[in-house]
TrEMBL record:
Any one GO molecular-function label of the UniProt entry: transcription cis-regulatory region binding
Pfam families in alphabetical order: Arabinose_bd, HTH_18
The keyword Transcription is annotated on this UniProt entry: yes
Protein name, UniProt field: AraC-like DNA-binding protein
Keyword annotations from UniProtKB, A to Z: DNA-binding, Transcription, Transcription regulation
HTH araC/xylS-type domain: residues covered: 238-336
């Protein structure tokens, strides 16, 4: 059963790993601890589960003793490493257009990030967050994003612009002054959201790299990528399945628990599953059925053990459910498979 997760462009993670390796850090162990094989970073545009990327960045900050690792790299990283979405943004007419384009076509480079430009025109505000469970540490990535966007805005407009306001959802007690100096405004941590508020006059600035013809060409490429993603099966059901598998045995595969892991409310999860033509209990039922068939066919587990793995009270309850699914008892199915 293929289970999918929210992926994110890993080019800058590869750059980080390469830099650390050149400095003599044990990057092989770093990758292994995050569950990443080196081959996964070898493609031109590697994509990895965002939770693994976040783990790499957090572990790298601890390994190097640099609490500002993401923030510093955001100021120096080559913006062109972002690939298609970066070149498309660079070809935009103005800074506001760049931000809107990156937000609109964010799925080109990430399934995990959400960018909100609904208040950009009226208040100059951009907010963003990653769709990860609350306990997933990803401070380095958030600080990288804010620094890299601000650095790119300065380079592409040729102006030393400073936001009016910058806030982060995560707390930080040390090196806050470094952020104040870089952004040129007071930066708040432990705030309600991750946010950059730009000056209206800065958003209207033309980009030095603006290119209408290239913009139109790259926009067509981005549209094609989004079309292919829309036509592909949604990975929400697979995410629910992935998270539920580990919780079936202890009875915690509930809609509340799964929604919390997906960083959304129970109501939002129900709505998004409904948009996919299903509902939570049906996903769990189908998952149990698929796993039950696999266990019956491909293992020597007893019916009591299978019942436990699937979260049933006893073998009798499991047998009743299995007969409802297949019209046969588990014993009958196993006997047929073995004949």
């Amino acid at each position: 059963m293929g289970l999918s997760v929210l992926t994110h462009n890993a080019v800058r993670t590869r750059e980080l790993i390469n830099d650390l390796s050149r400095k003599g850090y044990p990057t092989s162990q770093l990758l292994a601890d995050a569950g990443i094989r080196p081959q996964e970073l070898e493609s031109t545009e590697p994509f990895l589960p965002f939770e693994k990327i976040a783990a790499i960045w957090e572990a790298s900050a601890e390994m190097t003793g640099d609490d500002l690792l993401g923030f510093r790299r955001g100021q120096t990283s080559d913006m062109r490493l972002g690939g298609l979405i970066t070149y498309f943004g660079m070809a935009s007419p103005t800074l506001a257009d760049l931000i809107r384009n990156v937000a609109r076509y964010r799925r080109v480079f990430s399934d995990a990030i959400e960018l909100d430009t609904s208040d950009l025109d009226s208040r100059g505000i951009l907010t963003w967050h990653f769709r990860v469970p609350t306990l997933t540490r990803h401070r380095q990535n958030l600080e990288f994003n804010s620094a890299s966007l601000t650095t790119a805005a300065r380079k592409l407009t040729g102006r030393d612009l400073h936001p009016l306001e910058v806030t982060f959802n995560h707390p930080r007690n040390e090196h806050v002054q470094d952020f104040d100096r870089f952004f040129g405004c007071a930066v708040a941590f432990g705030a309600e959201r991750n946010m950059i508020r730009f000056r209206d006059r800065d958003l209207e600035l033309p980009l030095l790299t603006a290119d209408d013809r290239l913009h139109d060409i790259l926009q067509n490429y981005c549209e094609e990528i989004l079309r292919r993603k829309r036509d592909a099966p949604s990975n929400l059901v697979s995410q629910v399945e992935r998270l539920a598998i580990d919780r079936l045995t202890n009875g915690t595969a509930t809609q509340d628990a799964i929604a919390n892991e997906l960083a959304m409310s129970k109501r939002t999860l129900a709505r998004r599953l409904a948009e996919e033509g299903t509902k939570f209990q049906l996903v769990i039922e189908n998952l149990r059925q698929a796993l039950a068939r696999d266990y019956i066919k491909d293992s020597d587990l007893s019916l009591t053990e299978i019942a436990f793995l699937l979260g049933y009270r006893d073998a009798s309850s499991f047998s009743t459910a299995f007969r409802r699914w297949t019209g046969k008892t588990p014993s009958q199915m196993r006997a047929e498979e073995g004949s």
